[in-house]
Design a protein that fits this description.
Blueprint lengths: L9 H6 L2 H7 L45
InterPro entries: SRAP (IPR003738), SRAP-like (IPR036590)
GO biological process, one term: protein-DNA covalent cross-linking repair
Pfam families: SRAP (PF02586)
């Protein structure tokens, strides 16, 4: 699972002790993030265009647990 935190916490994450890093690992606000399925084209580094992260036209089964909607 990736760690997502505000940009202003970046220097704290990189330059602090393990306990402070643990404190930064808080659930990200649901209303500030969206999750959606994208094309498997993203798996090929040769596909370097904005379309690789465009949402697909259908809903992915099981993605609801990660969605803010």
């Amino acid at each position: 699972m990736p760690v997502v935190f505000p940009q202003d916490a970046e220097s704290d994450w990189l330059a602090t002790d393990p306990d402070t890093c643990k404190d930064l690992c808080q659930p990200y606000p649901k209303d500030d993030i969206d999750a959606y399925e994208i094309s498997t084209r993203v798996n090929n580094p040769g596909n370097d265009d904005p379309q690789v992260i465009e949402p697909l036209d259908h809903e992915q089964s099981g993605l609801g647990g990660f969605s803010s909607g």
